[in-house]
Specification:
alpha+beta, 9-stranded mixed sheet, 7 helices, 45% helix, 23% strand
Length: 321
């Protein structure tokens, strides 16, 4: 094949790879940013748990990797050969009338003296037709411009939003990227000092929370039981500390999960576990007499513990739990 045809087809190949790989990169980056923004919005509304945010991020990265391999790596590794490019050009410019693909294929075929002249004539005709035709137009840049424009608009909007609401957006981005120990930015931050609690059945429990930032006049605690029941109770500030809110629960019988709402802030869920109070299941007592009495140890009854001076009482207690 002539150097002219070879260079023209090579330029089409480079242009095709550049357009397809560039469009793939734009599409992958746009998808990642859109999913990241959606995660931030949902997290702001319902405070996604770590596992949910991790699952979304993994799915997002997997989708981006799939697009990158299919739309960027694959076009580079599986670039179109000369035959495919020649057929593309002929579909775009019918005046070649199969001369271009014939020139490409015949140039690779072994030839004797007679066929060399025929091949040279076909190649010469293909060269003459191709001189005034820019082969690059067979690979239009519209897909690259469209995907690039959409990606640029999405990324620009994300950057402007990040700059406008920096104090809120940055922690949400960190949470979406699984940075540990980052809380959702709220006007009021709810702090639970006690956390998870264990109480005896029938005892009272005091649920307390502290408001940092804007302190509301009242708060609310939501309680959810294992059977699905959900109750909400008002929390009042304490007289000595207006930013500390308390709700007392009397005669607690069942375990539950609670979370506190103060203004726009919400605490992480904590658990109150109700347990049976430990009791003495069995008690045995032995008295060791003073050495001067030379008496062996003896069992004693819990109702009669009057002992000789210098004695020791050994208690063996078996608890219910």
């Amino acid at each position: 094949m002539s150097q002219l045809l070879q260079s023209k087809l090579a330029s089409v190949r480079r242009r095709s790879i550049f357009i397809e790989a560039g469009a793939g990169l734009f599409t992958a980056s746009c998808l990642f940013v859109v999913v990241l923004l959606a995660t931030m919005g949902v997290d702001w509304l319902i405070e996604l748990p770590y596992a949910a945010r991790a699952a979304i991020l993994v799915a997002n990265l997997a989708a981006v990797a799939w697009i990158f391999v299919r739309r960027v790596v694959r076009p580079i590794l599986l670039a179109p050969d000369d035959d495919e490019l020649a057929l593309r050009v002929e579909r775009w410019q019918p005046q070649f009338a199969n001369r271009l693909i014939a020139a490409v294929q015949l140039s690779r075929a072994p030839a004797d003296g007679a066929s060399r002249a025929l091949i040279g004539a076909v190649v010469a005709e293909a060269e003459t037709l191709s001189r005034g035709i820019p082969f690059e137009q067979v690979a239009p840049v519209d897909p690259l411009f469209k995907s690039g424009g959409v990606a640029a608009a999405v990324i620009l909007a994300a950057v402007l939003g990040l700059g406008y609401a920096y104090a809120v957006a940055v922690p949400l981005v960190q949470r979406a990227l699984l940075v540990p120990n980052v809380e959702i930015p709220r006007k009021t931050r709810v702090v639970i000092a006690a956390g998870d609690l264990v109480v005896a059945r029938g005892d009272a429990v005091e649920l307390a929370a502290t408001a940092e930032g804007i302190v509301p006049p009242t708060g609310e605690v939501t309680i959810q039981y294992a059977d699905g029941r959900t109750l909400a109770f008002r929390m009042a500030p304490t007289p000595d500390a207006p930013n500390r809110f308390i709700r007392a629960m009397d005669n607690v019988q069942d375990s539950f999960i609670y979370s506190v709402h103060l203004n726009d802030g919400r605490s992480q869920p904590h658990t109150v576990t109700v347990a049976e109070r430990p009791a003495v299941a069995d008690l045995s007592i032995r008295q060791q007499y003073p050495a001067y009495t030379r008496l062996p140890a003896a069992k004693r009854s819990p109702g009669d513990l009057t002992v000789l001076a210098g004695s020791r009482l050994l208690l063996d207690i078996q608890a219910t739990k």
